[in-house]
Amino acid sequence: MKKLLKLIGKYKIFLGFSVIFAAISVILQLYVPVLFGDAIDEVVAAHEVNFDAMWYYLKQILVFIVISALATWFMNLLNNRMTYRIVQDIRSQAIRHIQVLPLSYLDQHSTGDIVSRVIADTDILSDGLLLGFTQLFSGIVTIVVTLIFMFSKNVRSEERRVGKECRSRWSPYH
Fold first, then answer.
1. How far apart are the first and last CA of the chain?
2. Which tens digits make up the pLDDT trace of 66-112?
3. Are 54 and 43 in contact (CB under 8 A)?
4. CA atoms within a 13 Å half-sphere pointing along the CA-CB vector of 98
5. What residues contact residue 45 under an 8 Å CB cut-off, 6+ apart?
6. Which of 46, 101, 115, 136 is exposed most, by the fewest CB atoms within 10 A?
7. Nearest to 118 by CA among 128, 126, 107
C-alpha cells in the first residue's frame, strides 16, 4: 500500500483537481433539487403562478446541470489519466524488475506466465484505482455536503420554530 501511495503521490495535481471537480459536481447535484423546490414554490394556486421567477429557477437548474456534467466529465478524464500513468509506472517497474531477475528464475517460469501475471495484475489494479478514485471522491464529498446541508436546514427550521414560540408567548392575543 505504501508503494502504491507513493506512486499516487507523484500525481498530486491530478488528485487535487479531481477532488475539486468532484466537489463541484456533487454540490451542484445536491443544490438542483433545492432549486426545483423553489420553482415549485412559485406555483401558489390554480392560475396563480409566478412564471418569471419559475423560469429564472429553471434556467439556473439547466446551467447547474451542464456545469455538473462538465465537472464530472473532467473528473473522470483526470482519474483516467492518473490511473493510466500509475499503471504505466507499475508496468515499467515490473519490466525493470524482470530484467534483473536471476536466470534460474526465468528458466523455471515461462515468459508468457510472467508477462500474463504482470498484465493481469496491473489491469485489476487499474480497474480498482479508477473505480476507487471516482467513487471515493464523489462519495466523501456527497456525505460531507449532505450533512452540512441537513444541519443547516435543521438549524434554520429550529430557529423558525423557536421564533414562533417566542412570538406566541408574547402575543397579546394568546
1. 67
2. 999 999 999 999 999 999 998 898 888 888 888 888 888 878 888 78
3. yes
4. 18
5. none
6. 46
7. 126
